[in-house]
Write a structure and sequence with these properties.
This protein is α+β, with helices and mostly antiparallel strands and 580 residues long. It has a five-stranded antiparallel beta sheet, with helices on both faces. A four-stranded antiparallel beta sheet has the order 4-7-6-5, with helices on both faces. It has a three-stranded antiparallel beta sheet with strand order 1-3-2. The chain folds into three domains: 175 residues, no CATH class; 102 residues, PAS domain (Beta-Lactamase, 2-Layer Sandwich); 196 residues, Hypothetical protein af1432.
Length: 580
């Protein structure tokens, strides 16, 4: 198929597919709407039927209660006059000993009067009637008459949605059967127990239900409409995106043809060595620059030939990393030595990336190399210079530490012992080696500020006065001022400044609290306290190690970092650490 024809075919196929989906989506939403409307109507009708049954059962219960008691006597009032249709009953009317006149109300009279006086409490209408009337006022309408005749033929209920005065109603009617208690009023009519006496009809106005149904349906129309628009919008979006993708593919095909031509030109003119492999990592092409850098011709590099030039000390690692990258379809970045055919060793920086076909399948790798021999030589020289500088720094620090000890013979070796314990704590905490080195150097000169404290105060055999103790406390600030101008690769000056600070802010010189104190200073603080307490001083004998450990444990979390204290305990108690 011609490429242009295939392009048009794909566009037309996409349009047909999306239109088919929109039609199917419309059918689904319409079906759901029709079913929901039907269900809503059924639920409204069921609610109306349930309401009618509630009214019917209430009237039946009320009537049966009255029949069970043979009717009830009530005072004669303007609203309740003696029932002329019960005049055949003895004692229809009685007078109480106090002279109050009472008249008998039968169940039918009671139900009728309840509906008459209290109909305003109900939206429904009720009517008790019969084909054989005691009271002509209770005569049935045509709907009720038809229902009563059906009851005499065996029907047990009539339920119908109809109209009364052109308004929609649900009408329910069920028969009333003669019970033994009914014969008091109806025996003269010839009824027998079990025969149909009449019925009670209930009329429920449907306008409130119809209003609710309309509101429900409006909600359904709106929700289904929104869902339809949302779904259709997604399908149209897919159509637009799909069309755009087909167009992009067409553009990509054109661009690919152009890029293949450009690639050939670029690779030959590139200042970077370029090697191309197949999906399995075998070389299929190298550019002229790659041959210039490595000394290998294209024929020498084909297949796995290019790997033979990797220096034998690097060959295993580089080959393993290369094939792992090929198998995983990942990028490859490595610096390694390459041996040219003339025996010259060069350093190269190599980077590869996989490339894919239209189906995202890896079809090969592009590998670039750059000669970095000069950079590597410069890095080696810089490394040597840095090591020499650090060595000079350490020697300077050792000299500073000796200066302090010469002025205070009682603390000779104190800074070295503090450094030993601080390094062990930091190592146990798994701190980085560079950070441990900073702790080591800071420990060796943490008391360098005592150079400014008079020797007679440092060596005083009695307890220091307040002003003398305040002078000793200045050694942290003095040490900071001495060291801060030296450009160490670690915060040596700040560590010296903070090594007498306490977590609760009671330390000196700045009263720093927990989070503001460097971890290195917290470690040196604990190591400093331990060695100071177990060492002899001119004003007191040495304390035992257990006493010193108990002292820092006593103030763990208040003065000293909890983790540092716990590790210090572990070193002495579990690992038999020795300061000497």
């Amino acid at each position: 198929m011609h490429k242009n024809n295939k392009f048009k075919y794909n566009i037309n196929l996409l349009y047909k597919f999306i239109i088919l989906l929109i039609v199917a989506w419309t059918i689904i939403i319409t079906g759901s709407l029709i079913w929901s409307v039907y269900q809503g109507k059924s639920q409204m009708e069921d609610l109306a039927k349930h309401e009618a049954l509630i009214h019917f059962n209430r009237d039946i219960s009320f009537r049966r209660w009255g029949s069970m008691h043979g009717g009830v006597y009530v005072p004669v009032t303007n609203e309740t006059q003696p029932n002329p249709y019960l005049k055949f009953i003895p004692e229809r009317d009685i007078t109480t000993p106090s002279g109050k006149k009472l008249t008998l109300m039968n169940p039918a009279y009671m139900v009728k009067q309840m509906w008459l006086f209290y109909s305003s409490f109900f939206s429904a209408k009720g009517h008790i009637t019969s084909l054989k009337l005691l009271n002509p006022a209770n005569k049935p309408d045509e709907w009720e008459r038809y229902s009563l005749k059906s009851f005499e033929k065996g029907a047990t209920e009539r339920l119908e949605f109809t109209k009364i005065d052109n308004k929609p109603y649900l009408r329910l009617m069920r028969p009333l059967f003669i019970e033994k208690s009914c014969l008091k009023c109806h025996s003269h009519q010839g009824y027998k127990v079990g025969e149909v006496r009449g019925g009670i009809s209930i009329s429920i106005p449907m306008e409130p239900y119809i209003t609710k149904e309309k509101e429900y349906n409006n909600t359904l129309y709106l929700s289904h409409g929104l869902i339809w628009f949302f779904g259709t919008g997604i399908l149209i979006f897919v159509l637009i995106q799909g069309k755009q993708r087909i167009i992009e593919q067409k553009v990509s095909q054109i661009a690919l043809q152009q890029s293949e031509q450009q690639y050939s030109i670029i690779t030959e003119l590139s200042p970077v060595g370029i090697l191309q492999t197949d999906a399995d990592g075998h070389c299929i092409y190298v550019n002229e620059r790659w041959s210039t850098i490595t000394g290998f011709s294209q024929n020498d590099a084909l297949g796995n030939g290019w790997l033979k030039g990797i220096h034998y000390d690097d060959n295993v690692n580089v080959s393993l990393e290369w094939y792992n990258a090929v198998l995983a379809g990942q990028n490859f970045t490595f610096e390694y030595r390459f041996k040219k055919p003339n025996g010259k060793i060069i350093w190269v920086f190599s980077k590869s990336t996989p490339f894919h076909d239209e189906s995202k399948r890896i079809i090969g790798h592009i590998v670039t190399i750059m000669d970095i021999t000069d950079r590597k030589r410069s890095e080696e020289e810089q490394k040597e210079n840095t090591e020499k500088l650090l060595s000079a720094m350490k020697e300077t620090i050792q000299a500073m530490a000796m200066m302090v000890e010469v002025r205070d013979p009682y603390t000779a070796g104190h800074q070295k012992r503090v450094a030993k314990l601080a390094i062990s704590i930091a190592t146990e905490m798994n701190l980085p080696q560079n950070q441990i080195e900073g702790i080591h150097l800071a420990s060796l000169i943490h008391d360098i500020g005592k150079i400014q404290v008079p020797a007679e105060i440092l060596n005083k055999p009695t307890k220091l006065h307040d002003i003398e103790y305040q002078l000793v406390q200045t050694h942290t600030q003095v040490g900071y001022e001495i060291i801060k101008t030296i450009d160490f690769p670690w915060p040596i000056a700040d560590i010296i400044h903070e090594h007498h600070e306490k977590l609760d802010g009671s330390g000196y010189p700045n009263g720093l609290t927990d989070r503001k104190i460097r971890l290195e200073a917290k470690i040196i603080c604990v190591a400093d306290v331990i060695d100071a307490m177990i060492s002899h001083r001119p004003y007191r004998p040495a304390y035992t190690l257990d006493y010193a450990l108990n002292e820092i444990y006593k103030y763990k979390g208040r003065f000293y970092d909890e983790n540092v204290v716990d590790i210090c305990f572990k070193l002495f108690k579990e690992k038999n650490f020795q300061l000497d």
